[in-house]
Amino acid sequence: MKTKFKTITLSSTKQNKEVLSMARQCYEILTKRGLRVLIDKNLSKLEGKKVKINSENFIVKKSDLLISIGGDGTMLNCARKYGSHEIPVLGINLGNLGFLNDIAPENLTESLLCILEGGFVEDKRFFLETFLDQKKQRHLALNEVVIHSGEMAQLIEFDLYVDDIFVYRQKSDGLIISSPTGSTAYSLSAGGPIVHADVDSIVISQMLPLSLNTSPLVVSGNSKIQVNLTNESKKAFISFDSHSNLTLKGGKQIIICKSKSNLKLIHPIENDFFQACRNKLGWSSR
User: How confident is the model at residue 2 (pLDDT cuts 50, 70, 90)?
Assistant: First the structure.
């Protein structure tokens, strides 16, 4: 059997019974076909004499494919940690609403064998890259960057610029800057549009704005988004895919743009974005 993938890594963020069961099944399928299997440290409870835990650096250097086992949170973690190094990522879905993991546990063996035999499509997604402190700090997000007050019913004030052009000054609970991938995540709950992954764009959505005429804004994916916190005496917070919640001092400038690195998502060949929307969001249901 010819396969594009020779060295495959298994990864997760949890080690419950369901995750470990899926990991064992993947391990057996892959090793029986003579493929090299690497194990991320987050699956350290995976038992077996031949199972060896590998370092993050080793996985980055050697992997042809990474299999993420869990929900979208796990996928986002794997995307930032490994996918940003151009390692293709395949998701086994143990979550509920997620759009990023395609393979259901009951279809694992059939779907995985089909992918190993070349029955897959590759889908490129861009990361959002955020710079803080005059580009001294750099953070990646696949779904969204959220700037927020950190407290219930508290507002922050900021100026928004797109490509160095002033857009507006606003007060709100926060601001969500989303990629097309993240348009079906937190951005959607804030009233943002659903954007197909092929559309090269960035979505800017406010969280509970102090305004009656504020709508989500869709700009080019090549845009540079700049947010200036205007109240120097009031702090705010910033998170990346609901991860790494950092404190921002008043007067801080935040720069967000498309990253040069891309995530390569591996999908079963029958993958259909609109079918996923129908299933996950209840379209066409009565």
Answer: low
**Measured distance CA(248)–CA(235) in Å, rounded:** 6
List pLDDT tens digits, range 155-208. Answer: 999 999 999 999 999 999 999 999 999 999 999 999 999 999 999 999 999 999
140 close to 80: Cβ distance less than 8 angstroms: yes
User: Per the structure block, which two tokens stand in for 162?
Assistant: 């797109």
Q: Which helix (H) or strand (E) holds 111?
A: helix 108-116
Report the DSSP beta bridge partners of residue 206.
175
107, part of any domain = yes
* Host domain of residue 105: 7-118
* Burial environment of residue 240 by CB neighbours within 10 A (0 to 12, 13 to 18, 19 or more): buried
Residues 149 and 63 in one domain: no
Which region holds residue 72: left if phi is over 0, alpha if psi is between -120 and 50, else beta?
Answer: alpha
Residue 151 CB burial class (10 angstroms; 0-12, 13-18, ≥19): exposed
Q: Is residue 69 part of a domain?
A: yes
Identify residue 130 by its one-letter amino acid code. Answer: T
Under DSSP, is residue 5 helix (H, G, I), strand (E, B) or coil?
coil
Give the C-alpha separation, 181 to 80, whole Å: 14
Contact, 161 vs 176, CB < 8 A? Answer: no
Tokens read off for 17: 């019974």
Alpha carbon distance, N-terminus to C-terminus of the chain: 46
Question: Using one digit for the tens of pLDDT, what is the confidence trace for 113-135?
Answer: 999 999 999 999 999 999 997 76
Measured in degrees and rounded to the nearest 5, phi and psi for residue 22 equal -65, -40
The first and second tokens of residue 49, run together, are 């004499």
Which H or E run contains 65? Answer: strand 65-70
Q: Is residue 244 part of a domain?
A: yes
Does 1 have pLDDT greater than 50?
Answer: no
Q: Does the pTM of the predicted model rise above 0.90?
A: yes
Q: Is 272 a catalytic residue?
A: no
Write down the catalytic residue from 72, 102, 123, 241.
72
